[in-house]
Amino acid sequence: MQFILKIGMKDLIVAHRSEKKRLLNQTYIKRENLANARRTLGNSLIKVIIGPRRAGKSVFALQMLRDTEFAYLNFDDERLLKVSNYDQLLKGINEIYGRTKFLLFDEIQNLEKWELFVNRLQRKGYEVVLTGSNSRLLSRELATHLTGRYMEFDVYPFSFREYLTAKGISFSDVDSDPEIEGSILNALNEYLTTGGYPEVVVKPLDPRDYLTVLFESILFKDIVKRYRVRYPKLLSDLAYYLISNFACRYTNTRLRKILDFRSVHTTQNYISYLSEAFLIFSISRFSFKLKEQLKSPQKVYSYDTGMVNALRYGLSPDHGRLMENLVAVELLRRKKDVYYYRNRNGVEVDFVTRRGTKLIELIQVAYNITDSRTQQREVRSLLRAQRHLKAENLIVLTWDYNREEKISGLVVQFIPLWRWLLS
After folding, report:
1. What is the pLDDT of residues 16-58, one digit of tens each?
2. Residue 333: which residues within 8 A CB-CB, separation 6 or more?
3. N or C: less crowded end of the chain, CB within 10 Å?
């Protein structure tokens, strides 16, 4: 029995080595944070790459380790999950790869008690790179067993800069060439519609079909199966409802009533499952009072506007909300501490960013700012919020309106969304 297990393990690791070679021979778009990630190689910290499925985590890890000799195992392979003796796994790695220092474990959250195994590998002197598609599982185990011994890298669908690179659209001379600016605006419209998932961008796929299948796969493989969800239809209804109502406020109590959940507790759990699987994320209302902030409605966003469009059958595109969603993801990508603002009089600002105790930006997003009523409404909200929040910068992100105005003694910057995304 041990002899059969040994042969099986060896063949399995050889198969994964072949997969690694095939992946390394492909051409990929260089991701923006790759240089920073490569500079961390050589330290003893475990590198953890997290983000949505199919957003490019594995490719990011492969590019990160390209110039090293590393072993590769993908734990989406169910055959690996049958291994109970991890020493046999380590023995097989050394038999096939030799004494390698670097290990890449893909979708590590699928392996039972992976954190204990990885902890032991680090103590043995291995430099371990992990990828995962479940934020809570990773964060919980990392915080419990690997405190202070790891660093995280977030990988989301392509940013607009990466999207333009993938499409071969130059943006270096945009200020001197209106044709380039026109091409960028055209690309931004397409980016809003089809999103930034790498395979959608670089392959001739139907975005709606691809993203719908991906959404359903994450829903049932990564959530229903993993958490043994008792009411998968309710979970699916909730997911579609939140995606369809992106950039809108919600409360757990209201969702329970709308979707006929049995309890607010179940609603909260299901929302956390969707968030942990990177299908949605939420931002809180800003308040100087923590209790008020915690009790207020949250706003929900998708990690990709293409997925929003794929799942909203029959609904016409809402450019303003899609732009807002795009900004929310970009702020997340830039690791901003971000909120929305709404006071009791209904004055609302799309985004408030904070650094420590200091408020840095108030950001409004408006598609058609050339309409005088729209401009007055957006600016009025900014100015009224500024009286209370005292933020440093007032910004209105527009489709194609670019100027700076002094209004009521305050400077308001009107910035085209594409310029802000490329800044």
Report:
1. 999 999 999 999 999 999 999 999 999 989 999 999 999 999 9
2. 154, 156, 159
3. N
Residue 279 one-letter amino acid: L
- State the Cα–Cα distance between residues 379 and 36, nearest whole angstrom: 38
**What fold characterizes domain 159-317?**
Arc Repressor Mutant, subunit A (1.10.10)
> Which fold does the domain 2-154 belong to in CATH?
Rossmann fold (3.40.50)
- Cα 225 to Cα 9, 58, 132, 390, 415: the distances in Å are 26, 22, 16, 47, 45
pTM: 0.92
Q: What is the DSSP string of 189-246?
A: HHHHHH---HHHHHS---HHHHHHHHHHHIIIIIIIHHHT-S-HHHHHHHHHHHHHTT
- As given in the structure block, the two tokens for residue 244 are 């369809």
Tokens 């709606």 label which residue?
Answer: 208
Domain residue spans of the chain:
2-154, 159-317, 336-423
DSSP 81-93: GG---HHHHHHHH
Helix (H) or strand (E) holding 398: strand 393-398
